[in-house]
Amino acid sequence: MQNKEKLFIEVGSYQNNKHKNIVCGDSVLLRKCTGENRNIAVLSDGLGSGVKANVLSTMTASMAMNFRVRHEPIVRTVQSIMNTLPVDSVRNISYSTFTIVDVDSNGEAKIVEYDNPPLILVRNGKVEEIKGSDTIIHRGDNNANLEERRLKLSDLKLQKEDRIIFFSDGVTQSGIGNMDMPFGWGEAVYDFIEDVLKQNPHISARELSMKIVKQAELNDILRPKDDTSCVVMYVRKPRKLLICTGPPFSETKDKYLAEIVSSYEGKKIVCGGTTSQILSRELKKEITVNIDDIVAGLPPKSEMEGIDLMTEGIITLGALVEILRQGPTTDLSGQGPAWDMLRMILDADIIDLLVGTKINVAHQDPSLPVELEIRRNVVKNIASLLENKFMKDVKMQFI
Quick one: pLDDT band at residue 23, thresholds 50, 70, 90? Predict the structure, then answer.
């Protein structure tokens, strides 16, 4: 999300299930309101674990997200959630906790915290205390014991290189009972975060959230005692990625295509044999093909100076679409050009799609599989998936 200072807010998350559970009792929802330049992140932790916790946390996170998207006042949003959530009759606690962060285009962040571990701000590589106000919310219940719930409301003005980090108690309580952390990881997670940032000051939000959750898993000796989730929001300059595919409609535009690619400030992916040959000719650079690099039935990658990744065209793009349709994944160990593209996409904020519109007769062959769509439709599918599921800022240019 861009603001007046041309900054960007990258949002990343990572989750891990309790040992032997097939579903996560925590829910994380991320939404980018493109027209308003807002990023909204919600983390909800259902009481206990398993399917019941998942249902309750999902309901809580969905309500919180839908209310915030519609600009409902914070207090009204929380009251609606509180009145909907059931309460444990024995322990007199809500069946789900939550944290809501809503950041606008100016870096103004509105934060709501209810019973999750305290949200932290990392500024200049150091964890800082967030000063908020405790607010009492009254439930719509006749039982006096259930009427009041205390939550913390905070307003922040984010600066370049700031990070907002929040997580479920599966992080802070990890390692509990161990000799070196009998009461759990607790605030020692702050030291861990500062150490990670000292080693890699520009680590992405996605990578940092993964490191925190993975360390919590190690604290529990690879058998997590609770569902574990972490969300990171990182304010920085946007990282740009160009995906160029297809020859221009007219050969007179070949030089223009090469100029765009060569002058682009960011990482570059080129998809398509014909496109690669045009760039090789116009930029006077050789292409080398790695014949041994055939993975998962996809054509091998090529290499050319100045290009970060060079692949075959429509087949690889089609494989990328199938991966994107599965939604954000924590497993990025897949091999092949499509997975290489995904990893580069996840590390970028602004995706520029440069699409040539010359018709490739081979793509119209009726003997080919139906799912092998023409390039323009495939690219439009990629753009839609990146915007809606991966919160990327996508720009498309046809030539």
Answer: very high
Q: Write out pLDDT tens, residues 72-87.
A: 888 888 888 888 877 6
What pLDDT score was predicted for residue 1? Answer: 43
Q: Which residue has the tokens 């018709």?
A: 359
What is the C-alpha separation between 131 and 44, in angstroms, rounded? 22
- Can you give the pTM of this predicted structure? 0.82
Whether residues 56 and 164 fall in one domain: yes
| C-alpha span between 228 and 212 (Å, rounded) | 10
- Judgement on whether residues 42 and 186 belong to the same structural domain of the protein: yes
Q: Which of 221, 183, 247, 278 is nearest to 376 (CA)?
A: 247
Number of domains making up the chain: 2
In this structure, are 244 and 232 located in the same domain?
no
Domain of residue 337 covers 240-398
Q: What is the DSSP string of 296-341?
A: TTPPPPEE-TT-SEEE-SHHHHHHHHHHHHT---S-----SHHHHH
Q: Write down which residue in 236, 257, 283 finishes a domain.
A: 236
Query: Which residue in this structure is represented by tokens 């009726």?
Result: 366
Residue with tokens 């929380």: 78
DSSP string of 354-379? EE-----GGGG-TTS-TT---HHHHH
Domain final position from 209, 236, 263: 236
Q: Which pLDDT band holds residue 262 (cuts at 50, 70, 90)?
A: very high
